[in-house]
Input
Amino acid sequence: MRTVSRVADLSSKLKDTAGTTGIAHTRWATHGAPVTENAHPIVSRGEVAVVHNGIIENHEALRAELQQQGYRFESQTDTEVIAHLVHSLYEDDLLEVGEVIAGALGPDADIDSLRGRSDALCEKRPLYPGFRGYTTYQA
Output
């Protein structure tokens, strides 16, 4: 569920949703207007979901590279760059993807598995991508 509504308003929107765990992120509009298209989680090709708090300084260069690879951007956020970057790099080892992403984000990035899980990464900013097929995301 992506919305720009208040967190308290989500309960009525989620009453028919299955699951026991979710992600809530109150977003400050650093890049793009506070509209649904820019709300988190940001998803790449229905497979990678990212919740991110912070600024990706080199997002314009990464966006241009990913567009050349055929990725279509649906939001104005810098976070969408990370969702597509994870998707473009993932083969079978999410932690290896994390190492490449850390290099793309710059010298201060430190990415590791989230609580030892093989399906989620965390970064100190934080960055939380998860993969399709998992009904629970942790933060």
